[in-house]
Structure to design on (213 residues):
């Protein structure tokens, strides 16, 4: 039985991902666009405003807020230099205090602040983050362009991180070999693979390390 075809926007078994960040991936982007199969018009170009919650003590749980909803993904494993992440939880605001106690702050791996209410609005939650010495809310605007190469879901994105512009390029699939072939075909073999957590921490100065270029 052959592998299942990847489709943009559809839920599949957990995917592996290559992603990198820098200032200029023009050559790789050009090759990606030329090699791409047709993709649905809805992913030609997408924009979003998001808030990432960064924790000084956590690199395994990726927390972001978009359209008033919180989404946390957790790192599962790494194979052949590619990362696999799974959903950990989703929640809407106002968010129950019990969810903050049981799921959210354990994911941040920091001390729990005192909670005095049964639920918290987005504004109240962000104030809680601002008051915490080990947490920071970071505004992220994404402008993403979708492609499909070697049956992997790909994108190139212009990303503003607290106003700082970086470029990202990625390939993801359930099949490791398809991602590795795509990296080779577009000229990204050997380029550092990092996730949004690592990129944002470098941009805001929590990690003293450069991006790919």
């Amino acid at each position: 039985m052959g592998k299942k075809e990847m489709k943009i926007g559809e839920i599949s078994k957990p995917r592996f991902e290559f992603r990198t960040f820098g200032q200029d991936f023009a050559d790789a982007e050009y090759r990606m666009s030329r090699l791409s199969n047709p993709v649905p018009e809805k992913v030609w170009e997408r924009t979003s405003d998001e808030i990432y919650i960064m924790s000084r003590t956590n690199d395994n749980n990726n927390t972001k807020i978009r359209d008033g909803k919180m989404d946390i993904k957790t790192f599962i494993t790494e194979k052949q230099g590619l990362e696999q992440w799974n959903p950990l939880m989703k929640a809407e605001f106002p968010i129950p205090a019990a969810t903050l106690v049981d799921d959210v702050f354990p994911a941040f791996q920091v001390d729990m602040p005192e909670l005095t209410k049964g639920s918290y609005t987005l504004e109240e939650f962000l104030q809680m983050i601002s008051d915490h010495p080990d947490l920071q809310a970071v505004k992220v605007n994404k402008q993403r362009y979708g492609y499909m190469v070697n049956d992997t879901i790909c994108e190139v994105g212009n990303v503003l991180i607290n106003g700082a512009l970086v470029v990202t390029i990625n390939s993801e699939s359930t099949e490791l070999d398809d991602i590795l072939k795509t990296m080779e075909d577009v000229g990204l073999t050997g380029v550092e693979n990092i996730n949004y957590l690592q990129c944002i921490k470098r941009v805001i100065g929590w990690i003293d390390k450069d991006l790919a270029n």
Summary: Strands lie at 16-22, 46-55, 61-66, 69-79, 82-92, 95-96, 119-120, 135-149, 152-161, 164-173. The longest helix spans residues 97-108.
